[in-house]
Structure formats: C-alpha cells, structure tokens
Structure prediction request, 248 residues.
Amino acid sequence: MRLLDTEKNLYAVEAFLPDDIPADSIKAVQQRLEHHKYVDSVSFISADSALRDFRSHFSAEMLDLVEGNPLPPYFRMTVKEENQNPGDLAVLVNALSSEDYFEEVQAPVDWVEKIAAWKFKMIFWPICISILLLITLSLIICNSVRLSLLSRKLLVENMKYAGGSYFFIEFPFVMQGVIQGFLGSGFAVVLLFASIRSLTQSLPIVDVYAQGAGFVFVAVILLVTILSGYFSFSTVRRFLNVKRSEQD
Prediction:
C-alpha cells in the first residue's frame, strides 16, 4: 500500500531550459504549461535553487571538478489525478520533448509502467491470501474450541443440569479462548517484529515501508483475540441450545 501511495509522486515531469533563457520567456512558457490539459501544477526551479537542492542531497565533492553551476533551470510539473496513467504520462513527455525551448524532458515512465503492470497483482493476491488466512484461522479456532468442549462434555452437562446459567457455563470457555488467542497472536507478532527489525537493520531502505507496522500488529492481536472469544462463545452456546432442545 505504501508503494502504491508513492506511485502518485512518480507522475511528475521535469523539463530543462537553456541557461541563457530570458525571464519574460520563462513566464510565457510557464503560463503555456499551466494551460496544458494533462498538467496539474507547474513550478519553476532556478539554477541556484537546483544547485542548493543538489548539495542538500549529495556530497559537495561531486561538483569540485566543475566550474560554476552546471545545473540548468527547469520546470517541474505534476500530472492531473485523472491522467495519472502511463499512457498520458508518455504523451505529455513526448509533447514537451517536441518543444524547441526545452533541452531535455525526463519522467520516470519506465517505473510507472512497471508499477501499473503489477498493480493488480499487488492488490489482488495479498487480499486473497489475507482472506484465506482469516478463513483458515477461523476454522482452526472453531475446531479447537469444539475439541475442548467435547473433552469436557460431561462437565458442561452436569453444570447445566445443576442449574448453572448460560453465563456461568460460557464464561470459562470464552476466557480460555480470549487468553489463548491473545497469547498465540502475541507470540506470532513478537516473532514477526523481530524479523522485520532484523531486516530493517540489514536493509535501512526497507524501514520507510515498515513504518506503521505497529498498528497492524495491534490490529492482528485484537482480531485473533476477538475471533477466539467469539467462536468460544458461539460454540458453547450452540451446544447448550442443542441440549436444551433435546430436553424439550
């Protein structure tokens, strides 16, 4: 999801200008770009601003062998949201490249095409796997509760015949399911957290995509705990209702 979110930032085009372009021409070109049907916003980056930005991201030693400022002024454009697709981005780049007042036009068209080709797979398969895991988890919890109930079937029947209320009978099973769900999911989350931490230490670039994982971990623990408590409650309640109908 973070990768898909950063995809929007890739729909940007940089059009480089010659160093000797006059100021009035810059304003005229910017106004023309602002009226382009694919362009959402246009910002002009002067050569001095480009140099400051370069030095803030890269080592100054890279410019020691170059006299003066080698970076040209340029326009940075963002594409409208409804036109954020590889086809329209390529059309915009080709249209700007045909203009005489731009020395070079660049945009991450290849990256956009790759992400667009994998977008369906990046969304579809994780959702399918998550649903499959959720169904499997529900079946495992439900069967575990049933086995636990069957092993104490005689005890539950005696409690019911002795006049125990539904709450009195169900409460121990629900608490057992909640505790087991909490401990099981908590142990799994700890292992996953240790794995992600080890991965981010080895590959610091992955740390950006691992942010917000704590919220997911908490959601997993809550989900498994709630499922365990719910299936414990529903299984015991169904068993008691069956026994009640048999008596009737």
Observations:
- The chain is about 70% helix and 10% strand.
- The radius of gyration is 31 Å.
